[in-house]
Specification:
Pfam family, one: ABC_tran
Structural class: alpha/beta
Strand order of the largest sheet: 6-7-8-3-9-10
Radius of gyration: 22 Å
GO molecular function: ATP binding
Number of helices: 10
Protein name: ABC transporter ATP-binding protein
Distance between the termini: 38 Å
Helix content: 25-40%
InterPro entries: AAA+_ATPase (IPR003593), ABC_transporter-like_ATP-bd (IPR003439), ABC_transporter-like_CS (IPR017871), ABC_Transporter_VariousFunc (IPR051782), P-loop_NTPase (IPR027417)
Bound molecules: adenosine-5'-triphosphate
Largest sheet: 6 strands, mixed
Oligomer: single chain
Keywords: ATP-binding, Nucleotide-binding, Transport
Length: about 280
Amino acid sequence: MDSVVEISNLKKYYHSGLRGVLVNALDGISFSVKRGEVFGLLGPNGAGKSTAIKIILGLLRQNSGQCLVFGEKISSRTKSKIGYLPEAPNFYKFLTALELVVFYARMSGMGAKEAEVAAKNSLEVVGLKDALNRNLSTFSKGMLQRAGLAQAIVHNPELVILDEPNSGLDPIGMNDMANMVLRLKGEGKTVLICSHMLREVERLCDSVAILYKGSVAACGNLRELLSDTESVSFKAKNPSLEFLESVDKSAEKFGVKLETETSPESLADFFNRIILERSGR
Ligand SMILES: Nc1ncnc2c1ncn2[C@@H]1O[C@H](COP(=O)(O)OP(=O)(O)OP(=O)(O)O)[C@@H](O)[C@H]1O
């Protein structure tokens, strides 16, 4: 499987505040997103996710390291193959859903007729067929997210980047969003999701990278990461608490930690463990 995004030793710092204090937003991160996979970019607030996404999109330049998209440095050619749903998109509210998506289709270089057909099609895909001609000002949050996804996929991009796609969605909306992501995957597209909704990420993603303070704390195939816990198990008929405590104490003597949890871990547990380890708490 070839890489759609290949990030190597990427560094980005900002000068912040009046004194220009240096903030290491990305401190040499490396990961790759393979063609056709759903990839989750995770991390607590301030970990560097948005900075990484902006660099992939060509909206920001790194200070050093490399970011290749479709094997090339970012250019207008590579950008035309990317669809992007920003977190909390701020669309022109006086446009109808159709006008909005046609606008983005035209920006991607389509002619008027082609843009209208593509816009109607992508609005139908996201479930807004009956709201084509409604003003965005009358849309609920969930409908705005759908319209945002429609603009992100209208030009049939190969790579779709979704920043907090579940923001403001109710459980039904989240389920619909998940189905749309799986549909994109089924069409052979690569999807990069940046999210704090770990249950959804666990359900959808093939691979993840967890960022912490500008570094990669964990990265790889999700199933492999989650089954990576070492555990010791034994069978005993109705063990008493006393017995269990004595086993635990004897194990401790030999430097063995008995785990009562069995693998695979949930992504949320894995995430918390990795972040706690990194933060030394
Ligand atoms: N324009 C900027 N100027 C100065 N510092 C910035 C700027 N943008 C981001 N930072 C800092 O860089 C670090 C990484 O920020 P970034 O927005 O990439 O994190 P994030 O993982 O996307 O966080 P969140 O989950 O809150 O969106 C943070 O310490 C942030 O304060």
